[in-house]
Amino acid sequence: MATRHVLAEMTAAAADAGLGEVEVESVGGVDAEQRIAEGEPFDLVFLADTALKRLSDAGHVDAATVVPLVLSQVAAAVASDSAKPALPAAGVAFDDAEGMRQALRAATRIGYSTGPSGTALVRLIEEWGLREELGDRLVQARPGVPVAASLAAGDVDLGFQQLSELVGQPGVRILGVLPPECAIETVFAGAVATAAADTSGAKRVLAFLASDQAASIKIRHAFEAPAIR
After folding, report:
1. Residue 54: other Cβ atoms inside 10 A
2. Chain-centre distance of CA 125, in angstroms?
3. Handedness of CA 26, 31, 32, 38 (dihedral sign)
4. The whole model's pTM is what?
5. Sign for the pseudo-dihedral over CA of 31, 208, 41, 23
6. Which overall architecture, per CATH, does domain 4-70+187-220 show?
7. Are 165 and 2 in contact (CB under 8 A)?
8. 160-177 in b/e burial notation, b at 16+ Cβ within 10 A?
């Protein structure tokens, strides 16, 4: 879900470049991985690089085609009365890791997402020894439901999610990304599925999405373009 808007614009640009129309279906990452693993036929798969590694190891995507597309940072946000779309905040949400720990302790309800960003946040909280203290104040959003929606509805008062999923959402104010010493970053990658009906066409589209031609689109959606390893 974190990449749904940027993928829509990038695949539209690929179509404008003569590479053919791409129909993108965006669902929660857990659901997407499961559907690919169960053999549902798709030409391209876009997921966190860790999920794609599992799928490639199991033979569900072509390992030779896996390519990083965007680097996403997790940001913190709070509820806002404004109906205007949220804008990216300059800088970091907290002065340092201690500032983030204090904010967690002070929050009444803390929203976090499914997928890699939520997993990384919970792991960080456990490393800090705060899991028991925070207890049921930690509220995981349902798959496919953005944390921004929980903030806007008043269900949580502090939320953590991929910056790209917070930008443009009404009813939230983005505080900024997490401090460098506790930053949570996810690389989302693409690959050609082994069940692809049009392997050559899928490879051409994927090459376009990884090229400099798509870089400005990624930046516009609050992503960075990771270096290809």
Report:
1. 15
2. 19
3. negative
4. 0.82
5. positive
6. 3-Layer(aba) Sandwich (3.40)
7. yes
8. bbbbbbbbbbebbebbbb
